[in-house]
From TrEMBL:
PANTHER family membership: ARGININOSUCCINATE LYASE
Organism whose genome encodes this protein: Crucibulum laeve
InterPro entries: Arg_succ_lyase_C (IPR029419), Argininosuccinate_lyase (IPR009049), Fumarase/histidase_N (IPR024083), Fumarate_lyase_CS (IPR020557), Fumarate_lyase_fam (IPR000362), Fumarate_lyase_N (IPR022761), L-Aspartase-like (IPR008948)
Biological-process GO terms, alphabetical: L-arginine biosynthetic process via ornithine
Lineage per the UniProt record: Eukaryota, Fungi, Dikarya, Basidiomycota, Agaricomycotina
Domain Fumarate lyase N-terminal: 8-302
Keyword Lyase among record annotations: yes
Homology family: Belongs to the lyase 1 family. Argininosuccinate lyase subfamily.
Protein name: Argininosuccinate lyase
NCBIfam families: argH (TIGR00838)
EC number(s) on file: 4.3.2.1
Gene Ontology, cellular component aspect: cytosol
Pfam families the record matches: ASL_C2, Lyase_1
Secretion signal span: none
Domain of life (superkingdom): Eukaryota
Length: 458
């Protein structure tokens, strides 16, 4: 049988279960392109320091491209002894170009190689994730722009609070996603640090030009400490933390829509495309898309917590525990990307029932406006709050709406009430009074829309 890549000092055979336990190829093969890119750049750097001549470099690069093409075409044949993507690619390279393939790993270790591949792979994925997030924000903004006329109760404690625009609610979620977008963009410089040239741990004795490598591979900077270069996985933790928070935002959006889609609320209807039925109850249309968005937030948080547990207490530099970075990261990237796409589809196809929202606006949500009315007549808010509360109680005891109280009723509560009081009972006017930045008035909703559109340009 063929020797393992590292087999020189071994006389005994690997236990078969251990072999499978150790093998990461089934999941790290998705980094095949990053691994090939890293190797091509490294071959070039070896030529620059005289380890390879130009002819050897060309042969190695041609071989690497061939290996890469085999992966692309689904023709790469995995062999039993291929441990991970790095050993698989090197094994195949040597099959294709002979012993010359064995020169490529000069001064390099899988430790700096894997750290480089992971960063390169993630940088590429982050671009897609960013596009997905922008797509979601975009549909939210477009909807908000079209549905500014819809008024609804804004809730605190899930109790009706004050009237707002539906667009204002939608945009509140979009602003969480805008922060996620900023945070994602801020991660990039810390992912984009090149470890290649750190060797196994103690740096590169052939003095490859690491700035050259960084430039070739598109990294923004070079790791300044080789031990850190091979041992750091903070960029993965940070991505998982980022994902946990972004998914938490999705989860809260999903929860709002789940509640609003109940028959009891009836504010929105989820498209059939994003709902499923019940195997037993024929009438059911369940918001499974939204529930999965809510549910997956727990999973991503779990990936983050789990991987932090893996890192905690590890000694310096590379330890095989670090191979456990891949599955949580890959899983997070896949699920977060899918979640953004699903959320975008849900929002794009949602039916919104403006009239149902309007019906949920009961006059009591104007009690704050009633208190503010008296503030404008010079009474301290603490008193007007109390007076308005008594008006609410009076209407409640009469089983009528707040606006059905007569001017005499109001005057009995405070003599400053006059016949303009009934102007207060206008939801649109209430919303339009809120003209400060951040308010639900039309102008301020428009402002939010332009702020978000500008954010999408970055
Ligand atoms: N498959 C390994 C990983 O994912 C690559 C690095 C292996 N290095 C080593 N010294 N065993 O971490």
């Amino acid at each position: 049988t063929k020797q393992k890549l590292w087999g020189g000092r071994f006389t005994g055979k690997t236990d078969p279960l251990m072999h499978a336990f150790n093998q990461s190829l089934k999941y790290d093969q998705r980094m095949h392109a990053a691994d090939i890119c890293g190797s091509i750049a490294y071959a070039k750097s070896l030529t620059l320091v005289g380890i390879l001549n130009k002819d050897e470099e060309n042969k190695i690069i041609a071989g690497l491209k061939e290996v890469g093409k085999e992966w692309e075409d689904g023709k790469f044949e995995i062999k039993e002894d291929d441990e991970d993507i790095h050993t698989a690619n090197e094994r195949r390279l040597s099959e294709l170009i002979g012993p010359l393939g064995g020169k490529l790993h000069t001064g390099r270790s899988r430790n700096d190689q894997v750290a480089t591949d992971m960063r390169l792979w993630l940088l590429n994925e982050v671009r897609d994730v960013e596009d997905g997030l922008k797509g979601l924000i975009r549909v939210m903004v477009e909807r908000a722009d079209k549905e500014k006329d819809y008024l609804m109760p804004g809730y605190t404690h899930l109790q009706r609070g004050q009237p707002i625009r539906w667009s204002h609610l939608l945009l509140s979620h979009a602003f969480s996603f805008r922060s996620d977008l900023e945070r994602l963009q801020q991660l990039i410089p810390r992912i984009s640090v090149l470890p290649l040239g750190s060797g196994a741990l103690a740096g590169n004795p052939f003095v490859v030009d690491r700035d050259f490598l960084a430039k070739e591979l598109g990294f923004q900077s070079v790791s300044e400490n080789s031990l850190w270069g091979v041992g750091d996985r903070d960029f993965i933790v940070e991505f998982l933390m980022w994902g946990s928070l972004a998914m938490t935002h999705l989860s809260r959006l999903a929860e709002d829509l789940i509640i609003y889609s109940t028959a009891e609320f009836g504010f929105v209807t989820l498209s059939d495309a994003y709902s499923t039925g019940s195997s037993m109850m024929p009438q059911k249309k369940n918001p499974d898309s939204l529930e999965l968005l809510r549910g997956k937030s727990g999973r991503i948080f779990g990936n983050m917590a789990g991987f932090l547990m893996t890192l905690k207490g590890l000694p310096s530099t590379y330890n095989k525990d670090l191979q456990e970075d891949k599955e949580p990261l890959f899983d997070a990237v896949d699920n977060i990307s899918a979640s953004f796409k699903i959320a975008e589809g849900v929002i794009a196809t949602l039916e919104v029932h403006g009239e149902k929202m309007r019906q949920a606006l009961t006059m009591d949500v104007l009690a704050t406006d009633l208190a503010d009315y008296l503030v404008r007549k010079g009474i301290p808010f603490r008193e007007t709050h109390h007076i308005s509360g008594r008006a609410v109680a009076l209407a409640e005891s009469r089983k009528c709406q707040l606006n059905e109280l007569t001017l005499e009723d109001f005057k009995r509560l405070n003599e400053k009430f006059s016949n303009d009081i009934h102007d207060i009972f206008d939801f649109e006017a209430s919303v339009e009074r809120r003209q400060s930045i951040g308010g639900p008035s039309r102008k301020m909703v428009d402002r939010q829309i332009s702020v978000l559109r500008a954010a999408l340009e970055n």
